[in-house]
Write a structure and sequence with these properties.
This protein is α+β, with helices and mostly antiparallel strands. It has three domains: 126 residues, eRF1 domain 1 (Translation, Eukaryotic Peptide Chain Release Factor Subunit 1, Chain A, 2-Layer Sandwich); 136 residues, eRF1 domain 2 (Nucleotidyltransferase, domain 5, 2-Layer Sandwich); 111 residues, Ribosomal protein L30/S12 (60s Ribosomal Protein L30, Chain: A, 2-Layer Sandwich). The chain contains twelve helices and 16 strands. It has a five-stranded mixed β-sheet with strand order 7-6-5-8-9, sandwiched between helices. Helix 2 runs antiparallel to helix 3 and helix 8 packs across helix 12.
């Protein structure tokens, strides 16, 4: 079953804690469409190679890990749609008492190539890359002499392009007439702005159409930032994403870093504005009583199950668990939503007979909802409590949904 990003993040956190005493932790990535026969042949070959390992304990642990993988592949009829990643090895904390475990991952996005590694730790980077947020803020910093185009994802700045212009200074050369010189200068400047716009379109236009570009910020020390936004250089799809223009001391790549530093508050506010808009959309639907918003665990779970959820809203501080309880005295069964402390430390009293109920199964509500949202192609948005709308959502139970259609 395909893991959602929340589940994958939790598993990677667990796997990253394991360390082998030697190179005995095996990682295997298989891309979609890979030949099953080739995998079995490869694993058999690696088991044969492992027999040459000098250390008896390491040899035994590596062979056992590979045997575990081979047995699993005998059960797999075909590689899943996004490929598969398997991790196996000795995770025992006691030397001489091996504990060979195996984990299997069907990632949320396709694996690109086959990877095999036997090391002191699991090879997790290819899966960690899948957790990197795709949503970005675009940055352009320019003046008449140079420009840089990049984007910020999370806390990381990526420089996509740097450009230098051929626009001369204002001083004429070689006795040229002032008017002719200015004409040449303006044409070169126009060409340079068009070059910047072309690079910006390549960097951001598809991201804007895919909903990945959250905003665009343009800066620079002179008037070029206004020229490129106020004249017909950038397409409307990018100008609609423009958050602001910012004055900087530098242009080019150095200016891009300065622009990011000066834009942190703008980006933070933009994230908050995005969250506020969604929560307000949810609240407006409730006020209109149009059936397009629901809140509370049971109603949201029902809407998710029906595939009716367009956007799932979950408070960042939401931490409920779904506990399945059964009374050993009268047999009464019940599902309750509790915080982790209540599950682990508080006795749950049976409503029928007053006896203490047994906890039979506990599931993380966020994991459950994220998984179902992924299956139903619903968006998920985590909402901060740092603004009034987010705090209101939390006080309403911390989980809500904007629906595609009325279900009541």
């Amino acid at each position: 079953m395909v893991m959602d990003k929340h589940q994958l993040s939790n598993l990677l956190e667990e796997l990253s804690e394991y360390r082998g005493r030697s190179t005995e932790l095996v990682s295997l990535y298989i891309p979609p469409g890979y030949d099953m026969g080739s995998i079995s042949t490869f694993l058999a070959s690696e088991q044969s190679e492992a027999q040459n390992i000098k250390s008896k304990n390491t040899r035994k642990n590596v062979v056992s890990a590979l045997e575990k993988l081979e047995r699993r592949f005998r059960e797999v009829r075909e590689i899943p749609e996004n490929g598969i990643a398997l991790f196996s090895g000795n995770v025992s904390e006691q030397e001489g008492r091996p504990d060979i475990q195996m984990w299997e991952v069907e990632p949320p996005e396709p694996i690109e190539s086959r990877i095999y590694k036997c090391d002191k730790e699991f090879q997790l980077e290819p899966l960690k890359e899948l957790l990197v947020e795709k949503e970005v803020y675009g940055l352009i910093c320019l003046d008449k002499s140079e420009a840089a185009i990049g984007y910020v994802r999370g806390n990381h700045l990526t420089v996509e392009n740097t450009l230098e212009s051929n626009v001369p200074g204002k001083t004429t050369k070689g006795g040229q007439s002032q008017q002719r010189f200015e004409r040449i200068r303006e044409n070169l400047y126009d060409t340079f702005l068009n070059q910047i716009a072309d690079k910006a379109k390549k960097a951001f236009l598809q991201k804007a159409r895919d909903g990945e570009l959250l905003g665009l910020i343009i800066g620079g020390p002179g008037f070029s930032k206004e020229d490129i936004t106020e004249k017909d250089y950038l397409p409307k799809e990018l100008l609609d994403k423009l958050l602001t223009t910012v004055g900087t001391n530098y242009s080019g790549e150095e200016g891009l870093k300065e622009l990011l530093n000066k834009s942190e508050d703008i980006i933070e506010k933009s994230e908050a504005i995005r969250e506020k808009k969604k929560v307000n959309e949810f609240l407006v639907n409730l006020k209109k009583d149009n059936g397009k918003s629901v809140y509370g665990l049971r109603d949201v779970a029902k809407a998710l199950q029906m595939g009716a959820v367009d956007t799932l809203l979950i408070s960042e501080k939401f931490d409920k668990k779904e506990a399945k309880l059964k009374c050993s005295s009268c047999g009464h069964e019940e599902v309750r939503h509790l915080v982790e402390f209540e599950v682990e430390n508080e006795k749950q009293e049976c409503e029928e007979c007053g006896s203490t109920m047994d906890v039979e199964e506990v599931q993380d509500v966020i994991k459950m909802f994220n998984k179902k949202a992924s299956q139903m192609d619903s968006d998920v948005m985590r909402i901060s409590r740092e603004h009034e709308e987010g705090d209101r959502l939390f006080k309403m139970g911390g989980v809500a949904a904007i629906l595609r259609y009325r279900i009541k």
